[in-house]
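Data availability excerpt. The first of two example chains:
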Amino acid sequence: MRKLYHFTRLILPMIFLIFSSCSSMQGTVVISSDQGASVKTRIDAPFKSVPKSDRIPPTQKPYRIDGKTYYPLPTARGYVQTGIASWYGSKFHGRKTSNGETYNMWSGTAAHKTLPMNTFLLVENLENGKEMTVRVNDRGPFVKGRIIDMSKKGATQLAFIGQGTAKVRITALAESTTYKHGEIVTERFKEYPDFQSGEFYVQIGAFGDKNN
């Protein structure tokens, strides 16, 4: 009985140690082969947490405003939209935007209901021909019929700050995504075609019968 007691005292801590090591095992380990050579292999923890950057950003999840659900687009590629633009200024200056930035009404940013954050847009005022490039960093506007909320700088540059709204066309130019892996920060740009220039083709017709 005493031998069993000593055996139990000796073996239980070892078992605990082994399982504790397995639960946190991660990195490069060295395993000795039968020939005496050392072989390096990598063992990843079985319950490795998913890096934060691999999760769906909160700004890409559906959200509900005034009883209506909005579904953010997975990409801005090829996006073109025509509608009414408005602007927001001093009331929101210094507050947090939807992506966590601090709103600066004198910067070239804008709010859109569904485009991915950090989408770069060409905004054209169809009433006077003025245009500028802005970056989406907020959600809105949530007024019926409006497609984009410009900063005060944007409204000033597009010359509709006095009237409050203007008919515009917005075209996606690029989108920037920042990934964080520990201390490493990488930035990726996806460039889009210049929709204002280049060669365009229009198909007039397609006929299976030559006589047609």
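And the second chain:
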Amino acid sequence: MQIVVRQALISDSSSPFHGQQKDILIDGDIISAIEDHINTNKDAKIIEQDNLVASPGWVDSFANFNEPGFEYKETLQSGSEAAAAGGFTQVFAIPNTSPVIDAKSQVEFITAKNQSSIIKIHPLGAISKKIEGKELAEMFDMYNSGAIAFTDGLSPVQSSGLLLKALQYVKAFNGVIIQVPTDKSIQPNGLMHEGILSAQMGLPGLPAIAEELMIEKMISLLRYTESKLHISGISSGRSLQLIIAAKKEGLNISCSIASYHLFFCDEDLREYDTHLKTPLPLRSREDMRALREGVSNGDIDMIASFHLP
């Protein structure tokens, strides 16, 4: 079957057509022509709409597909279908499952599903056994079985000593540690950004310093180990400035934000809308604007969905 996409803006910096509006001919599963105008047979499917954009498949670096153990929330199949519907062709699946993805057998369970999946699922192996933050998991075995990087996901490692060992350990195979920047000892029951609004609403606040202190600690450990670190889900402007300074220093660090931090801030919670109760709190309007600027100028490396059914 032939498909013609009419006058799509091509967004692909590696393509000679980047930034141009073209017709695209898809023959079966192959893009066979990109031209100003393409004539085709009457049986071809035509996709024509204002403001069409064509790009390579998107990559989501932080999503929870819940399988195994929590299939009532999501399965690898339903998660893959949701990802594909949104234009994602590769997804990093966090290890917060039951059992936890902390050994090669669990990694192989995920990678085996790729044979029938419509997208590519990359398992993220756990840093610590059972994501308890006490002992290192067998990261080398998981890496050899297909784990693309290592994280404790929604339960980030709190121990400086264990995180130090993890950063040192992955250097043996050029691995990457991914950490959500949350110091859980600071206001562990916080429900929203700590500020004037949280006081007015009577909700316990989670201060930005819980994130910023964790980032400062991780940067110090990264400097010491000379390893690789990705900080996933920053939410404050100061967090971004700390990471920018670390990059200028030459440290091997990158960062991502949750997509919702570009669109909402704590002011949007005035009506107690539970749809906006996010695992990473919505910060101030100033923080939101700083993150938008960080995306625009390239200081923020990735936008993650933080898909958490």
